[in-house]
Amino acid sequence: MIPRVLLAALPTPIQPLPRLSAFLGGPRILVKRDDLTGLAFGGNKTRKLEYLIAEAQAVGAKTLVTVGAAQSNHCRQTAALAAQLGLGCILVLSGEDSQPSSGNLLLDRLFGAEIVWTDRERRSEKLKMVFDEAWQAGRRPYLIPLGASNALGAIAYAGAFDEASQQLSQVQVDWQVVASSSGGTQAGLALGARRALWSGHVLGISIDEPEHDLKETVAFWANEAANRLDQKARLRPEDILVNADYLGEGYGVMAEPEKEAIRLFARHEGLLLDPVYTGRAAAGMMDLIRQGLLRKGETVLFWHTGGQPALFASGYSGNLPLSA
Ligand SMILES: *Cc1c(COP(=O)(O)O)cnc(C)c1O
Fold first, then answer.
1. What number of other Cβ atoms are within 10 A of residue 244's Cβ?
2. Going by CA atoms, what residue is nearest to atom 1 of ligand 1?
3. Minimal CB count within 10 Å: which of 42, 67, 250, 278?
4. Is the pTM of this model over 0.90?
5. Residues of the chain above pLDDT 90, percent
């Protein structure tokens, strides 16, 4: 057994989206509500942090150090966890100190995280420096990688796959669709699917990585997780399904496809997506439905990985005609 600290509100519910399915004239769509995992508005990082924090505690860590974008959900959840456990927290964020307190950044500041700003290109260099300084200062830092994606993060999502399978034991699911960026979430789902000999497909909608790179990353972490679990399952990059057609103008740049997805989920189901991850993944899923790849008669499980606080920092007015 891999040590784990129980933090998340599990199992997260699975809900049907009948009005959206009917509007799209496509497959039955179910949503796995991993936006309800808990830890300051929830999201997929909570499951991963259950395993990473167990390792941090085992090595006697006193400060959590991690990295992300200014509106990183992962950093916000890490800051909340540090506050909950009375640990220090240092976040290396790309952007500038002048950024207004809104969305996730407001929450990071509320949780009392120390924020070190840097450019995106120098983020990992800066992370290393900050970690070394904290170490030398005797603060017992524990490094959490970008997006908490490593073997432990993937193990968390292999478990999430099992959880969803149990909930859906009476339902034939053809596809699982998930927003994929640092890759740990998809790696876990892909490993879970493989070891269960599941007959459906786990499809990652890439948020910011080219298809080739993301397949490599996902396969790598799936295999690291399998090793750590002493399981024989192995995945090759070509076993991983990634669609990178929806990168738009890059990470965090919300455009019409994301806005449309956010609007349709809101107006047909009263459900909120986020502008960076689930908005983009849902836009991709809807496009694949319109293209006929995800077909009427099939069942799709869409993983809601969270991220809604970023909606409040996105500048989206939401104020478009009802027919749109
Ligand atoms: C981090 C994140 C993802 C992507 O998960 P990875 O494991 O990094 O691929 C998806 N959705 C939301 C809301 C996230 O915060």
1. 19
2. 147
3. 250
4. yes
5. 96
